[in-house]
């Protein structure tokens, strides 16, 4: 058994593992090539996050989805590069909006060069992705445009918050479908489509990608509260400290509104206060870890993961399908 990609995904077929590794290496080379400029400073800024590494989750999904057609088709690797460039571009912009200081273990671009350079570098990456996309045909351009519209809509909805009378949890899940699920769905869709897979397989893999993408984000929400930094590499409470609404907190708010329990209201008051103090953050984490809202968020994560797995059922049995199913297991494990 060998290991590739994020989460320590194991691939049980040597030929598949070799092909996936080759594909991911080609994507990495494509990312470096796409982020080169005649202006050395632009190259430095554009390659900042590329060289910082990352899970390359979306290219991995494209490589596995391509196994349901001709995985060696010429459009597979460029389409994976397009999706990852788009993802990287959004990270530059996200860090500006979130005033983040660190990304992938290095200074964020906005910390190093300022907000203007970070925003413009993200725009540069979008431009390079569009340039590659143009060679993949009008259908690919349309698919990417629709996905990017959904991604931006999700980000705007997150910023605006739920409208009056809207269930905040349902609003949040809609945000996740757009902000995270849409681009992961495109990774699967491009991989299968560029490989010439039949339409039903393309549709199945697209649905799988969106559901897995939502589950992946929900697992991150759980991880922010439940993780041990030594085990996960993620500093617990980061989202709490920044006031980012995550699923466990939304469930807590819903339960507090329904029941009005003093302990829940007291915990919400703590969460709504100043969590820059380490002691207050530690108390909030301790109490949330013991609260049923965290387990409810875990159940939601598992439900989305199982829906993703069930979507794959009509596909023929093969090592690529097994690897996609194992990614579902990895997301569940990530959520504890």
Order of helix and strand elements from N to C terminus: EEHHHHHEEHHHHHHHHHHHH
| Poorly predicted sequence stretches spanning 5 or more consecutive residues | none
Strand order of the largest sheet: 1-2
Q: Span from first to last CA?
A: 23 Å
The SS-based structural class is mainly alpha
> Mind summarizing the main beta sheet?
2 strands, antiparallel
Principal-axis shape? globular
Mean pLDDT: 90
Strand count: 4
The helical percent reads: over 70%
Radius of gyration: 20 Å
Count of helical stretches: 17
Could you characterize what this model shows?
It is globular, with a radius of gyration of 20 Å. The chain has helices at 14-34, 40-46, 48-51, 57-65, 76-98, 109-113, 115-134, 138-160, 168-194, 199-226, 229-232, 238-241, 247-259, 262-271, 278-289, 292-311, 319-334; strands at residues 2-4, 9-11, 102-103, 106-107. The chain has 17 helices and 4 strands. Strand 1 and strand 2 (9-11) form a beta hairpin. The mean pLDDT is 90. With 336 residues, the chain is mainly α.
